[in-house]
């Protein structure tokens, strides 16, 4: 079963979030963080798939503070629009969107009554990394081609929970040498690279790579099983 709910962030701000529930008692919780295209059909399908595996899942709208109800596709104009929203969110005074993610984690902890993990894609991958380093209540974090997480500022962060990171070797947005530098700086992070392009997990994008997506999914499943149960 799936539905939209309203989260109340620490500063009193209401934030929309998509929730997908498993059949029966949850074995834990998963927070899903969107790309720059909003909580669109792809992200909702990701949430639904984790619910089908027994987790209580929540996908907060990380654009809500600058533009509610964003649902974009993957053409160039959508990318430009989404990048604009992402830039606006990143420019918010701290803690900004991190409070909204904390509210989603808190909701997952309370509702699932189990351990909670987070998984993010593209910009959501960056936010998942920051969440692992800054927020409370996480037992595991997974990032997919986290745009920006290999920059100098992000390299200096230290995760508070186990982290699994997936990167694409042919990513035009994240240079492979910066991925290798991240891996060297953070030997505690489980880093995997794939012979694929940015966005390889999304079956609605031209860069979708079924083999890489399946390999990454199997590793993510095992990682969540090990750390969430």
Question: What can you see in these coordinates?
Answer:
This protein is α/β, with parallel strands linked by helices. The protein has one domain: Rossmann fold. The protein has helices at 41-52, 76-90, 97-112, 123-134, 152-155, 176-185, 210-228; strands spanning 2-8, 14-20, 29-33, 56-60, 116-121, 140-144, 163-168, 190-194. It has an 8-stranded mixed beta sheet with strand order 1-2-4-3-5-6-7-8, sandwiched between helices. A hairpin with a 5-residue loop joins strand 1 (2-8) and strand 2 (14-20). The protein is globular and about 40 Å long. The two termini are 21 Å apart. The mean pLDDT is 97.
Please describe the structure with a list of short key phrases separated by commas or semicolons.
single chain, 229 residues, alpha/beta, Rossmann fold, 8-stranded mixed sheet, 7 helices, 38% helix, 20% strand, globular
